[in-house]
Amino acid sequence: MDFSEVGSTWRSVPSWASFLIEFGFAWPAQPGASRRIAIVSMPCDSAAAGLIVLGAMRRCLELDDANDVGSHYQRLLELAHKRPNGVSLRHATLPGCFVFDGFDPNRNPMVKQPRSKSSRRINIPRASAMDWRINGEAPVAVRNGQQVPNSQFYAHLVKQGGNIRPSNLSESHSQICLAGRGVGAAPTRGCMADIRFRVDGCEANLSQLLTVQRWMPGTISRVNFYNARTEEFDRQAGRPQVVIADGDASFLRVVDGKGFEHSDVVGVIHRTMERDRLEAVGTKVRSLRQWYDRDGAILNGLPERPRGIGIAVLRRSQPCQ
Amino acid sequence: MPVTASRLFDFLDDRPSRSIERYAIASAAFGDLRHSLRFMIVNLVGDATGISDRLRSLLSEWLTVPVRFDNTVLLALREMGGPAAVESRWGRDIRSHYDDACRTAQELMELENPVRATLANVIQTLCGDGRSFRIFCHRRSREHFESLFPAANGAALHGSVFIHSVAEYREAELFDTLLKVGPLRSRGWGSAPDALLTAPRFDTLIQVVWSGCGDEPGFGYDPVSESLPAGDTAPDPGAVADWCAPGLQLKWEVQETRSRDNTIRLHGDLPDINEFEVFTKLAQPTDAQRSTLVQVDDCHGILYPPHSWVLGLDTVTNSIDYRLPGESLEGMFLILPVVNDARLAGPQAENGNFSRIWKEKLKAEYQRDPAALASRLRDAGLQLLFLQGCIERWCRPPSTVIHAPQSMHHFEILIEVLGLDFGPNEPARRRGATWWQFAWDEIRRARGEAIQTGFQEQQAVDEQALVALRALDSDIRANLGHQAFHLPIPAGEWLEGEFRFYKVLAVEEGLMAPADELKKLCGLERIDQWRV
Q: Is A290 exposed, middle or buried (0-12, 13-18, 19+ CB in 10 A)?
């Protein structure tokens, strides 16, 4: 696999990038494990957060049940009960938008087309739930053997990686979350797009490989995006398992943020900023030490840490007050 | 284009350690001056804190900037009055140090600053060896570096050599050597980003310091170190020892070269000590608070309390919004809504009228009998330490700001003593407030200071300001080529007054200023005294 940054010549993936991908790959937690928080400190502004997300996403491609298929029907049921304003559905083949309209006798959600003259209502049983997606979100799955674009890249990302489950390349997943920079989504995407990979003559940039829904519309998405400026997710899919925050402002917003209380958080900062901002992160880390212990276990199985990258990992030892 | 992460990691990986070459310079004469000034700064308290702050500011500058030894310290000392006045006011000890300071300050004017000589040698060597180098210094210190090579008219030090902020450092390409005068400190005089040590883009740091001036303990801060167990953290870099950050696997080997001149000290071999440590321990005024300086031109800036929101215009995205005064504000326009005081409606339009009148009267009175005017002002309650110097400053014609007393109460006294008021035939609308109130409002608006209002009213003003600014979109675009401009708030808006636009040159954190000096345009010379 080749690597290029900001249009530079192709080279093998540098140690700093492969280390961060491996770090992300090693991160996903065992179910029921204590919450962990990490700070990754970089010597320059970079796409480090995206590389960690890529590693974590790559790990999930190996796992059973790493998809939204199981939870999708449940989510449709909840939405049918709450009927929040502005939520509509689209079908894989039927044209137009649909809105919830009660339940059938088996308690399956019913939908109808709001502007249609026909009074036709369609029920959504569990078996056909995959045909429906929330308008504005990625489909839960793509069918007929289709896969996420650039799927050939994922097999080459980590040396010790296991086999990717082919079904995961066709199904969305929302447990890995990228929290964008405090100034908004565009700078995060721009930074990710500067990193390019090449496999067997095919090229893809990091923003494409992350499959964030708005950056790669029309296909499945395996990374949930949180806009730290507007404080909105790109989908409402429950709490993510891990949030990788790009930058100090994003980290500080997420680490105590509503909806993230039980998620692991990896904050990626760079050190070329003012002392006040560095101290704000340091103060947060220090305050966390009341309830968290150092946990360097994750670092043991990783390749040698490149000079200039600092990592601190904390694991919750006591419940927060 | 900043250096890519891959290039930077290749660079860091290239060698296990980097070097700090530290030139510690001792001068007997300057050591004596430091000793005397330090004594006065620490012991001048009460009503003398003004002179103490001034001397601290001057000494701090001399310790961190390659200045020529000129008469600035001597002039500041003379403002204290003659030796007899100093003794009668502050006692024999202060008088003794005052005499010593005057003598050594006078002597130093005959000598070349050895820091400048060392620096010139270092730069010439670097140029001769063909090594790429950069200089980290405060924006206002740059002229002193450039003056090292007068014959070449500063040509050896072209603009791109200088780095003034962490943002500029972040954008810098890789280079061989970084030059820094003064100790490594995170805030205040001679401050520099921690990234110089924790995220180096160069191999060698050449530091030229006065003896005794150790680096700030904890400089080279990295939040990750917060979670490392004690013992893994970096050693105190104030000592001449290697500096390492195990958490980052970065190491700096420090090599110190000491030199001293052959002048003879007044007080024997007293060791030089770190003034910055001494000054840090001095009690701050109770109302002093942490503040951020937004510099808007070469001579002026505005201090803001932490976490305050300022109106900023981003010329790249053409968006106007409230922002925190941080480095992202650099290059944008700071917008000050200068809203008219409704009580004083009408004569405000006649900008400069009131200041012209009172300044003419003040100048005439001062020229007639300076001592008598000062005495009358003191008797009326205007108790300032260097009153005559202040009066001379207030007589100056208005520039970006109207030079006037800082406090409204002092200004009221001044106008009362000058005997200025509306005549009986003045229009009734003027007599809604007194003459000095109109004149003070003129000063307030020149300083870009907001009217003191309640929280809710201020919120309404903030919201309305954004609405009014949108209506000025085309006027704003037409003026973006200027460094500063102002536009009247369009008629029909809820607010009356004008918007002032200032291009932000630099943002600097870590000052400690009195609360009543915040959020107003102020001269940088004055602001210097609040640098820690």
A: exposed
